[in-house]
Predict the 3D structure of the following.
Amino acid sequence: MSREEIEEVKERLDIVDVIADYLHLGRAGRNYRALCPFHSEKTPSFYVSPERQTWHCFGCGRGGDVFTFVMEQERLSFPEALRLLAERAGVSLKSTQNGKGAVDLYDLMKEAHAFYRRQIQSAGAETARSYLEKRGIDSKNIMRFEIGWAPPGWDSLKRHFAKAGFPPEQAAQAGLLINGEKGTYDRFRGRILFPIKDVRGRIIAFGGRTISGDGAKYINSPESPIYSKRSTLFLLDAAKKAIKEKNRAILVEGYMDAIKMHMAGFPETVATLGTSLTEEQATLLKRFSDQCLICYDADIAGQEAAIRGMYLLQGAGLDIRVVSLPEGMDPDDLLSSEGGFDRLDKLLETADPLPLFHIRTKEAELTDESKRSRARREIIEGLASLPALEANRYLPEVAKGLGLLLPEIVGVLEKERKSRTRKGQKKRPAGEDIAAEGKAETVDPLEAALCYLLWIDPRLRATVPPELVFPLLHDEAVKSVTAALIQGEEPAELESRWLETGERRPMAILAAGGAHLEEYEGNNRWEVLLEALKRKKNYRRFLFLKEKKARGEASIEEVREFADLAKALKGGSR
Ligand SMILES: [Zn+2]
């Protein structure tokens, strides 16, 4: 990839258009605002600047340009993000043309899907079709949910790809072929395939169910450059509109349940893919709705691991309700029973808020003297993991359920919260770990703004004396960007270098700086910033000396300096 290509893609695209594909952007003065997709929040602190073509979140500190947004949002590497955006911008990349027939993994998945869908119509798929028919999925719904069939042979897809000119290395990268000792072969053999799509509706993986009873019941695509299990929900692309409209999502456990729910008239249903719930999935759901109804079969919903996952979702700001299905029934069973739709509909309406559901699963223990305190502790622990405001909503009912007085439970909860903070258990949302290096959270806004001003002003870069600037800077990353700029490196060069090396923090700092710079109007922004940074530096020194003085360790010169600083800080000059 060349610098020109990167520049051209950026020029042709408007960051507002690109981000608007993922988020609901509202106008906010000269900028746009949305709920941040990278951390959980209830009031929007994610800003997009059309002028600067950057984004910045004041909540979690992430930020950058159109490339970094797509990289974080879609979990792509820079070359992948470049390819995606180049396609959108209509820029053809030389690098991929020369790449020995390299193809887009999405195209590859699309081709595989088309192949598998043809197979399910073939004579060889008779047993598959009749299996689905028995489970209540007729040919019309096979079409609707785009279900496919992987023939039982070892190389059906492999041979098809060879004919169609798709490189086997990439098919292996996408998880469709496996490189074994005896050569390359198909991953999916003799299985019904459910296509797994991303939120935009592109095929990213498959879930394969056996019908012969050979091997595992389900085999799924492995993680790949385009597929992350943790941040995917089955049928979300089909469900997102209904989720938004009804402002609720229904969460079930498997492909079959999800499909049957859609068929029965609950199009707001999605399924997890055999993992416990993740923070990423919570963030994903939160983009479309505030409420999530969990609809697992009874013995799974009551398990500790499942409940922990639910607290995670609730802690991420989703209102979690748990549906209590009749013992031994999954949603599919219930829907297939007499009056199933109405029964389920009613259960959804009367679903329990999570803390109360938790108490219900512990009912037996709570009435048993020997198990009571343990059960109580587990419930309190769950409650303490929620934001205080969330937890407080349920206190009266929880107190009643636990057989405690309201003041008692407030006290116990307070104690539990304190011990959690002490133990450092107050976990950061998992999503934050992934792109931690892309955060500018800890950067001083003034330093970032100064750095940004240099970034956009070539005249300033050429004339500013380094010895004037550097003593005022604290942050190592700001210093190194500033140094590069003052030494005459071009912003475009720097940026393409960061993108290629995967360094995210510099762009995040610049985006933060651009956002903060908006607070300063006029032509003398540079002077104002320098002045503010000087004051800040003086203030730090003032505090340092004050402490030294208090300990009786300050020299005469330092006492004098301290007095001068105090005067200057008060007077607003120096
Ligand atoms: Zn954020």
About this structure: The chain has four domains: 3-95+440-517, 105-227, 230-434, 525-571.
